[in-house]
Design a protein that fits this description.
mainly alpha, globular
């Protein structure tokens, strides 16, 4: 019985591969198997549309469904939670011939999936009492604790603007000016650094400038606040203000506390 179930599952997932279908047991051929396969593709497509909303709008439903079929063939789900499936989708999109003229699509997919995963993480609490250390310790002896859910991305393409464009378009209709600006950035080869964070229950994304990206990288490496501030000055980011950044970082839960170095 178990062997038959395994064979049936294999036959269903082999729907896009002629060679593998030819080697499948003939007992599963016919309209019944086709129904299973159609339902599987529909479920898989819907799951990926939820995880990759920007990509759905970028490439359209037909190409999206084709890409979903390819992912089912090459990286079928290994568990029952569709929301965990899709890690290999960005890499697969890079291999689809019709998308070769749109090299920004895989990076946009990585952002989509990172946001999707972030939305599923447990919320983290900020330990405000830990900031009492500021009264007794020098900055050279203190480290900021980053929220472990925080994600930073660096792309050669304007992935934050692409995400914002299609999120805005989904909610309110296309903004011609914003679309024009994004198209110009793509033409000019303008990249963006992205920060993915979740201040409360909704995952968000915004662009990082060079200064904040460098600052967060230093904090992520465990550099003390004092040493990090010195490094910022040496790097030329003299306008970066810890006093201005810290309250916003606490509000957005970019950091969850302070500890001695």
């Amino acid at each position: 019985m178990f062997d038959q179930q395994q064979a049936l599952m294999a036959a269903i997932f082999q729907q896009g591969d002629e060679t593998e279908r030819a080697t499948s047991s003939s007992q599963f051929e016919g309209p019944g198997l086709a129904i299973y396969q159609k339902n599987l593709l529909a479920s898989a497509t819907r799951a990926l549309q939820i995880s990759f909303p920007t990509i759905l709008q970028l490439i359209g439903e037909d190409v999206f469904e084709y890409a979903t079929q390819q992912l089912l063939n090459t990286s079928p789900p290994s568990h029952g939670d569709w929301g965990l499936w899709g890690q290999d989708f960005p890499k697969l999109l890079n291999s689809i011939e019709v998308l070769q003229s749109y090299p920004f699509v895989p990076d946009s997919a990585r952002l989509d999936f990172a946001l999707h995963k972030l939305a599923r993480q447990c919320d983290q609490t900020v330990k405000l009492e830990s900031f009492n250390l500021l009264a007794d310790w020098p900055l050279e002896k203190l480290q900021l604790v980053l929220n472990t859910n925080l994600v930073m991305m660096n792309s050669d393409y304007p992935i934050v603007d692409l995400y914002g464009l299609h999120e805005n378009g989904h909610k309110q209709g296309s903004d011609p000016l914003l679309r024009s600006l994004v198209q110009q950035k793509l033409k000019d080869g303008t990249g963006q650094k992205a920060l993915l964070y979740r201040p409360h229950y909704k995952a968000k994304v915004r662009e990082l400038d060079e200064a904040e990206y460098y600052w967060l990288t230093l904090i992520q490496l465990g550099v003390s606040m004092g040493t990090a501030m010195d490094a910022m000055t040496s790097k030329g980011f003299k306008d970066f203000s810890l006093e201005t950044w810290l309250p916003t970082a606490l509000q957005d839960k970019l950091i969850t506390g302070l500890k001695s170095a």
